[in-house]
Every structure is written in structure tokens, then in C-alpha cells.
Amino acid sequence: MNLRRKILLVAGAVFGAAILIPVIHHYQLRIAEASYIARLKAQGEPMELAQVIPPPVPAGQNSADAFLKAIALLNADKSLLGTNYISGMKMVAPGKATTRYQLANAEGGMATNSWEEVAAAVRLNSKAFELLQRMIENPDLDFGVHYERGFGAGCDSRNLHLAETKRVAQRLGSATMSDLHEGDTASAVKNLRALLALTKALEGQHFLISELVQIAIAAMAVPVTWDVLQSLNVTDAQLAQLENDWAALDFIQADENALEMERVMRLMSVAQWRFSNKELQQLLDSEKVAMPMETVQLFLWRYWWSYPDELRRLKGDEVLLETTRFVKTNHFFQTAMQHQTKELDALGLNKVADDSSGSSNQDMHTLLSQSFPALSGVSSRLMRIEAARQITVTAIALKRSQLKHGNYPPDLNSLVPEFVSAVPFDPVDGQPLRYRPKADGTFLLYSIGENGKDDNGDPSLEKGAQSKSLYWQNIQALDWVWPQLAN
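Below the sequence we write its predicted C-alpha cells.
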């Protein structure tokens, strides 16, 4: 064999290897991801769209039509309700608050108005509020979302009406505060119940973005509920309705449903992105895909980089679901979140850089996992709102007990079974909420808060905290103390 032939054979072998090795590596990566998905399916994980889509709401129970009609009426309104949301419970010191509805003027986020102006705006929107109050009996919203189309086609936030939902919640809160100022507690309770029904309805959408809006709306409802509890003419029957509405909210199940849905929908989207440059271009929000370097990057992402990134993301999904399911079974977050942090650190998902700008510097190796740190932070929000829910339910039950017996009970066990079915627990550590009546006729009720230790009901901020917020669930507060009425 002459030298030329040897050179050609060696060159051919090198060229063949240069082609064959990447092809083999591509299939190895595909098989690794497919094997992991197969293992999840074998464990009973819902990995198909049909398994995670929420069941359709029967026509007689679907409040979507009334909701959309209310939105149309409210959008046509140019009064102050559209720009000046009035919340409840004005914090004046750690653990102390005053009723906002008893202030001389209606203080909102953007301006201060007279209560007469607010009442006039509420009356102007009375038809819209009546439509929203229908949701109390049927807290279900089915907008006919096309889940099968995947993200960006049938399932973006515009189809879910989330921005409108949040604005509606703000107006219901403002109407509740106006009713309280007018002395109409019955109407106030009805508007607050509509606000809670709106919160409940978001559980049926099975999206994390919907869950985040649900948490935000529930957080609005807490201070409004606090103001209702200070009303001198609120009745036990009204409080029982509010307690049932708060108790019916299930943030934990909503989180599990959303995580399962997001995983399936992302798998559908990744399949589209691997198949179509157009779909991937929309993801990157870039018009420069045709540039040579970016074309190479897209090719490499499609056949190699996307597989290990998606596998890591799937493992992260499993960690988050383990956290939620642990809480669902054991009723506390502390251990679950410690385990979550450890597992996500091991996967490197707590430190993935988030560059979602779609710039040319986009790291295509972590395209699917770059948003994970924000996603994993939902667990902390979930813990805070679940603590708020448990404390709010307990505060309502304590008020009911006080109305009937003239004073607050000696312990939370005394509320069972007349006012609550079981002693409410602290979702941080799973122990009963901390409570004790005080000699001045008030009470101390609290969760041990973000730091995970009992600071004996101290609502002040941790030493060295930079925050100046008096918000009772400040993440830097020693304990999350249900505010008492300031003298």
C-alpha cells in the first residue's frame, strides 16, 4: 500500500470518526433523557398532557361569562377605582396596625381621596360587583384554554386573563373597604368573599404564573380580612362564611398541579424548539438567528446541548415536586426546603445565571435551566401564604369564639370542634400555631417565620436588617405575628 493510499485511508477514518462520534453522542444524550422520562412514567409521574389538564367546568358552574362581563364594565370605568387601590390594615409598628377604613381619608397606593369619592365610584360599578359576587357560589373559571397548543399559542397569560384578574381583585378590595367605612358589613363581607372566590378560581388553571397571581391576590385579601375582623357589627354567620372560604383555599395542591403541568408543557415546547428554528427564535426573542454564529449555536443546541440541560431541568422539577408533596403529607416546609436546597445545589440549579434578555450572549448550554432559581423561590412564597392562610383562619375562629363567649379562649384546643375542625398548624415547622391570650384582652398569635425558630412572638426585624417595611410577614421579621389593633 503506497503512502498516498494510507493517507487517504487515515483521512477517511478521521473524517468518518468526526461524523460518527457526534452522532453517537447525540443518541447517547437522547437515550439518557428518554430513559429518565421513562423512569418517571414507571413511577406513576404524570408525563402526558391528558394527565395534567384540568377537567372542564360544567356550563352551569362556569363563572367565566359573568367574570368577562364584569371586566368589560370595569374597563369602561374611568373613576378612581382604576388607579387608586385601597388596601386594608395600616401597619403603624411591628405587630400593631390601625383600621384603614376608619382613617379620615381613603389612602390608596397612588393618591388619597375622600371616602365619599370612593363610595361614589363603588356605586358606579355596582353591576360589575354584582356579577363578581356570583362567583361566591361557583368559584370556577374555564376560559377554554387550548393546552394542547403549548406555550405561546393557546396558553399565554392573555388567554388566562391574569392581569385583569389582579385588577378586579384590587377593586373588590377597595369596595370592601368602602363598605366598611359606610358601616355596611354585610356588603363588605360579600365583596371580600367574591375576592376569595376569585383566588379559589385560579387553582383550576394549573399554571405557575396563575399560582403566583393567586398568591398575590390572597396576600391582598389578608389585610382586608383583618379590617373586617375589627368591625363592631360583624356577625358570627358572616365570619363563618369567611372562615370557610379561607379554609377552602389549597395552595399546596395548586402548586403540585402547576408543577406537573409546567413539566409536561415544557417537554412539548422543547420538542417544538428542537424541530423548528422559528419556534426557537420566538423563545430567544431574537431576529438574528440567520447570523452564522447563531445558526451554529442553534444547531449545536438542537442536537447536543439541549439534552443534558433538559435532563438537569427534569431532575430539578422532581426535587420541587418532592418538596410540595412532602408538605402536602407532613404539613410543614422546614425539612422539605432544606432538602430542596441541598438537592438543587448538587444539580447546580441554584446558581444558574438568568439571562433571559435574548441577547447574542445567551448561554445556550443553560437555556432551559436558567430560570430555575426563580422557580425554586416559589416554595418560600408558598410557605408565607400558607402561613398567612392558617393564621387568618385562626384569627377568624378566635373572633367567633370571643363574640360567643365574651373573651378569647385559653388555648387553640378550645376552638375545636366548634370553630375549627383541628388545631391550626404552623406550616414552617408543623407544630400548632403559637397562641396565648393576654391580660389586656388581646392575644398573641404567630408563626415562627422565615428563620425557622421561635422568637417568642417578637415581630421586630432581625438584627442588622436593612428593610424598613412594617409588613407583618416581612421575610426578615423574627416571627410572623398577627397584628393587634393599635391603641
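The first strand starts at residue 90 and ends at 93.
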